[in-house]
Q: What sequence folds into this?
């Protein structure tokens, strides 16, 4: 399993990096790997060729040749191992650190390879040379001559000793034959002469042996100080040698030289004799013979011995280099592991994970110190980021609070930078200026609201400006103040405020006028009526004139009274008394009365409900609708007079003709009453029609629409003017039905 973790699969072994830089950087190493493999195969082929040559198969290779072949095969093999170790280190580095080039790994492996390979090559070279020169010396002719001389010396010594024993045995056998002619074999004289022969000839022991009928040898006479059974010393090999025709049979034992010869012609009587040999000389002879035999045997295996030694050196050196490279890879892994953790932690920090820490091993080396410094740095960065997050959170809360405040105020607020570009616009400002849902941030203020840009550029920084939004003319009170790198412009819609102020002022004026005018009107009218009754018949010639004058006075007083009543109504509008009413019925009755009063005008009603519940003051709502219908009829009359002013109708009055449409549209939380006509239409400045004393008619008081507006507002509604589809004016009354006012007692 360990090798499986270290070595990559063969399919991926020669794969280089996918990037262009990786391909360019790895190509030389791939070429080197293939080149070294090819060189190793070539050197192996050359070596095999040299070692298997027939004429040199049994000769010792010269030392230079043998060492050169070893080094030539060892260098490419070592290079292959180094390149393999480099590739392993690079792969492990790339797995340990994503995106790493593995240079630190490869440098460590290269350093270990140099440290291990160079001494190994030198040791192998010197060991091979020493061994080869030793082999050449050991198996040279000189060494062989020394061994052969020693063996010949030992062999000559032993041959001389054997010849002496043989000659003495033959001479003693001749003498004993003479003794047997003179005395019996068992006589004392023969025994004395036999002993003399043994001592004289420096033999250690001797015996005369006779062969019995059973073929066994028995001792007849013996000279043996140790009194041994000498008949057993004669071996069948010695008897076989005598039978083959040799006069003496010799035998060499550990401590003596033995000989046997026949005393008679038939070979039935044998003489045995032995002499003790030198133990050292014999052992040296045996050793010399064994050494020479071993030397001859080794001489035949000299080439094989050279090959085995060189192969052993070859394998041991590769094994040592492999172990060194394995140690280098492991050492590089161990050295790079904390750096790998540090790189991974740095990448996590680059992704924003400041909580990443490297493992502190507690060591006191530089890498551990770097890890501790990294942990300290990330801890401080994390604390600072948390502080920034808290600060940003507080700023966000404050910004949200300020945004809520800005959005909740009714005044419009716009913030612009030093170039006049809008940076902030609250909803009130957008409703007041544009009234749509588009975003105007990052647009110049001069394009959105040029009149506010003028205020921002003015020296005073405040102004009351008017502008038209659609069909409405609005009045704004704007103020500009410095705000950081730009300005903050605030403005309020004071249109209604100004209108209310004018209405309040005109209400006071109307009340005073009504009070001052109404008092003398009654006496004037009563006086005119009394004059008409009392003096109407008394005047003769100018009766008609008198009647016309008094009627004029009475009629004008009536007009003044109507005008005073309108002033009173405008000045002292009573609080509405809310009751549940049917708005459809109210509109129908108002239309009926106006249809009777203006028979020449066509009135049409349209409503999408049969009955519309509405909480209101019946009298006031009826008054507002009637006033609007009267205005519509007067607009039609004005248009008719304008169309027919060039035509003379004599004394007859032509009835005005036209169309008035009244519709009711009910919505979820509101109801609209829309009155349209085909009269003269609206003036261009129709926004001021609802202001008191503003009128377009010669005899108008300018209070009708002001009263209508006041009634509508007190019923939680709004009034709007537009051009109708009929070509005249269109007035829309919108009432909020979601509001339930409290009933008011009269």
A:
């Amino acid at each position: 399993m360990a090798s499986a973790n270290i070595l990559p699969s063969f399919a991926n072994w020669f794969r280089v990096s996918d990037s262009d830089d990786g391909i360019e950087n790895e190509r030389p190493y791939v070429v080197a790997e293939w080149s070294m493999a090819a060189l190793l195969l070539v050197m192996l082929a050359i070596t095999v060729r040299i070692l298997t040559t027939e004429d040199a198969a049994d000769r010792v290779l010269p030392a230079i040749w043998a060492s050169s072949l070893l080094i030539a095969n060892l260098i490419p093999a070592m290079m292959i191992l180094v390149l393999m170790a480099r590739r392993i280190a690079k792969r492990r580095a790339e797995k340990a650190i994503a995106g790493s080039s593995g240079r630190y790994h490869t440098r460590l492996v290269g350093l270990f390879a140099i440290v291990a390979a160079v001494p190994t090559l030198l040791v192998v070279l010197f060991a091979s040379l020493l061994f080869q020169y030793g082999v050449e010396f050991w198996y040279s002719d000189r060494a062989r001559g020394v061994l052969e001389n020693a063996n010949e010396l030992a062999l000559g010594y032993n041959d001389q000793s054997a010849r002496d024993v043989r000659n003495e045995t033959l001479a003693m056998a001749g003498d004993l034959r003479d003794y047997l002619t003179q005395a019996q074999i068992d006589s004392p004289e023969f025994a004395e002469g036999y002993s003399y022969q043994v001592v004289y000839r420096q033999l250690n022991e001797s015996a005369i042996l006779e062969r019995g009928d059973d073929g066994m040898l028995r001792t007849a006479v013996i000279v043996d100080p140790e009194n041994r059974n000498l008949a057993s010393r004669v071996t069948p090999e010695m008897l076989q040698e005598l039978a083959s025709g040799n006069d003496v049979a010799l035998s060499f034992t550990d401590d003596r030289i033995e000989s046997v010869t026949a005393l008679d012609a038939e070979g039935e009587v044998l003489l045995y004799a032995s002499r003790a040999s030198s133990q050292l000389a014999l052992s040296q002879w045996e050793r010399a013979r064994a050494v020479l035999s071993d030397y001859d045997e080794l001489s035949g295996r000299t080439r094989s011995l050279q090959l085995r030694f060189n192969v052993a050196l070859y394998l041991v050196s590769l094994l040592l280099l492999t172990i060194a490279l394995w140690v280098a890879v492991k050492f590089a892994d161990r050295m790079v592991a904390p750096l790998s953790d540090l790189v991974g932690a740095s990448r996590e920090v680059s992704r924003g994970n400041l909580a990443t820490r490297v493992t502190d091993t507690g060591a006191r080396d530089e890498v551990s110190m770097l890890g501790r410094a990294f942990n300290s740095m990330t801890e401080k960065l994390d604390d600072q980021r948390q502080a920034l997050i808290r600060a940003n959170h507080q700023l966000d809360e404050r910004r949200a609070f300020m945004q809520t405040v800005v959005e909740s105020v009714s005044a419009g607020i716009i913030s612009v930078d030093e170039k006049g570009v809008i940076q902030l616009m609250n909803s009130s400002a957008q409703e007041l200026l544009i009234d749509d849902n588009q975003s105007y941030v990052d647009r110049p203020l001069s394009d959105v609201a040029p009149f506010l840009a003028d205020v921002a550029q003015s020296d005073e920084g405040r102004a009351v400006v008017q502008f038209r939004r659609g069909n409405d003319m609005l009045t704004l009170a704007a103020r500009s103040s410095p705000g950081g790198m730009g300005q903050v412009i605030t403005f309020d819609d004071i249109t209604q405020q100004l209108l209310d102020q004018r209405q309040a002022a005109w209400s006071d004026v109307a009340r005073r006028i009504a009070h001052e005018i109404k008092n003398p009107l009654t006496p004037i009218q009563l006086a005119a009526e009394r004059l008409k009754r009392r003096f109407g018949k008394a005047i003769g010639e100018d009766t008609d004139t008198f009647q016309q004058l008094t009627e004029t006075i009475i009629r004008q007083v009536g007009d003044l009274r109507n005008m005073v009543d309108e002033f009173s109504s405008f000045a002292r509008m009573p609080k509405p008394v809310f009751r549940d009413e049917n708005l459809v019925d109210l509109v129908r009755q108002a239309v009926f009365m106006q249809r009777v009063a203006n028979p020449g005008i066509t009135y049409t009603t349209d409503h999408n409900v049969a009955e519309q519940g509405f909480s209101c003051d019946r009298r006031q709502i009826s008054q507002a609708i009637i006033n609007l219908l009267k205005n519509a009829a007067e607009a039609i009359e004005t248009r008719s007079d304008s169309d027919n002013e060039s035509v003379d109708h004599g004394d007859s009055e032509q009835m005005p003709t036209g169309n008035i449409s009244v519709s009711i549209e009910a919505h979820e939380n509101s109801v609209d009453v829309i009155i349209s006509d085909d009269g003269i239409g609206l003036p261009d400045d129709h926004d001021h029609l609802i202001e008191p004393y503003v009128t377009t008619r010669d005899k108008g008081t300018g209070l009708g629409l002001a009263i209508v507006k006041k009634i509508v507002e007190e019923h939680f509604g709004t009034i709007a003017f537009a051009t109708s589809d009929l070509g005249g004016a269109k007035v829309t009354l919108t009432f909020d039905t979601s509001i339930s006012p409290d009933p008011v007692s009269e």
About this structure: Residues 169-288 form a domain with the Beta-Lactamase fold (CATH 3.30.450).
